[in-house]
Amino acid sequence: MSDKLIVMEKRVYIKTFGCQMNEHDSERMLALLAGCGYQETKRWDEADLILVNTCTVREKPEQKAYSFVGRFQRLKENNPDVIVGVAGCVAQQGGERLLARIPGLDFVIGPGKIYRLPEILHDVEKGRKGACAVGFEDGSSVHLPISHSQQLRAYVTIMQGCDNFCSYCVVPSVRGRERSRPSSEVLAEIESLVQRGTKEVILLGQNVNSYAKNNPHELTFPQLLAKINEIPGLERIRFTTSHPKDLTEEVILTFGKLKHLCEHFHLPFQAGSNAVLERMNRGHTREEYLAKAKRLREATPQISITADVMVGFPGEREEDFSQTLELIQDVEFDGLFSFKYSPREGTQAAQWKDDITPEIKQRRLEVLQELQREITLKRNKKLEGAVREVLVEGRSRNSPHTMMGRIRCNRIVNFPGGPEVVGELVKVKINEGLQNSLRGELCR
Ligand code: SF4
Known about the structure:
Helices cover 35% and strands 22% of the residues. The chain is an alpha/beta fold.
């Protein structure tokens, strides 16, 4: 048997926590590992390498990641040959300390050092214990291969890091300052994806609206969108995340002008009270946020707006929380990602007293989520009777005879159909708006 064949038998199990950026990093790590002879497995008990890609942005995924890694310590007792690595933001923040804290952990690799994964793995395979590569990316990560798998929807990083320093957020310290990829590389990556079957790209960055803001020789974000829109064969473009202070009128007017740009905008607001926003160092007021959300809806009435919000930030009074609820009612978000504040090590807010009790945080979260559930259902019901374009992603989880896809404003639709429509853009009549999805029928 050749060496190559032996190498190809290796399996990697990767568990990803956190945001789409992490999902994308996992894809890139899988592509690098494929070059080292590792194939992905969905079963951790048959893996030769277990990689946990972690997130520290919120407390819950961080704790989950720790308990997940802990499970593999027991696995290592039975199979000492299995290699266990931690990647992502917990790795970046913890570095060498993680190796000391988690017995049996073989290596730690931060998001900025992904390109060193083959070298680290090689060292560990040769018997080196406790390899650690953390620190900010030094230009090499942008040349990482993209996943070789055929993907109908693919993530494409256009920038990394953030310059905003919101007082609660670890991103600037774990992902570094803003760095934009050259537009030529972004366009080449998307062209290559489209040639391999991708129909929808989701452009990723912590703050995509400030793409290349310090480089007068580079395309602006709206110009980049316009170039991507011209790529033959690409059907849909989405992007996330945006910061309200960097959302310009030019970007707002891009919707409707570019055929392939989908009508969905994720615009986090975090809190509805100016006092809280100021302590969060968000750089925008409640009034500015409301004005931009209004402009988005005026310019593109069918646009769907989603956001991130947190409750229980230090010093959040009942009246501050009421203002958050009012803002939610005013904007009528299509969906919200809502969280309870938890202090993150190394942030400015972590130095302040976490003075809102867990019970109050929980109550506020429940009240907020109940309000949003009503609004989401109402907005989903408004779509009943409409015919919408759907990119069919595959079978629905609940039934083999039901297909699932997304309309342009990112809602999930289930409809009766067969696998022949997977990967196609079809027209679906929406018959029912439900809490988390829509139900419809194919228009023949
Ligand atoms: S904008 Fe604020 S919350 Fe978003 S990544 Fe940057 S610092 Fe974090």
